[in-house]
Amino acid sequence: MNDESYMSKTDAKTEDLLLLEKELISKQMKFETIYEHQLQTLYWAAKIRENKTEETKGGLMELCMGAGKTFIAIALCLLNSEPGQVTVIVCPQAISHQWHCEIKKWFPEAETSSSVVVIYHGPNRYSCEITKKTRFVITTYGTVNSEWNTFSDIKTKKRKRNHESFLFRDQSEEIYKIDRVILDEGHYIRNPKNKTTKAIYNICAPKRWVLSGTPLNNTTDDMASLAAFLKGDKECSKALLDEFSDVCSKFVQEWKKKFVFFFPKSELKLPFIKIQPIELEMGSVQKDIYMKYAKSALEKYEQSKNLNGRIGYTSIFAALIRLDQCSLDPRLMSHRTNKLIKKEDRTKQEEKDTESSEEEEDFLEPSISNCVYCMKQASLQLKCDHVICKTCVDKYYPSMKEEKEVKEQKCTNCLMDEQLQVVKMPPFSAKTKYILDFIQQNLILKRVHDKIVIFSKFASYLDVLQNALKRDNLLNKIKFARIDGSIVGKKRNAEIDRFRSDSEVRIFLATTKVGGVGLNLVEASAVILCDQCWNPKVEEQAYSRIHRIGQKKDVVFLTLKTNSAIEHAFDMTKKKKLILERQYKSGQRSERMHSGLTKTEMKSAFALIRAELRRYNLEKTKT
Question: Are 71 and 45 spatial neighbours (Cβ–Cβ below 8 Å)?
Answer without folding.
Answer: no
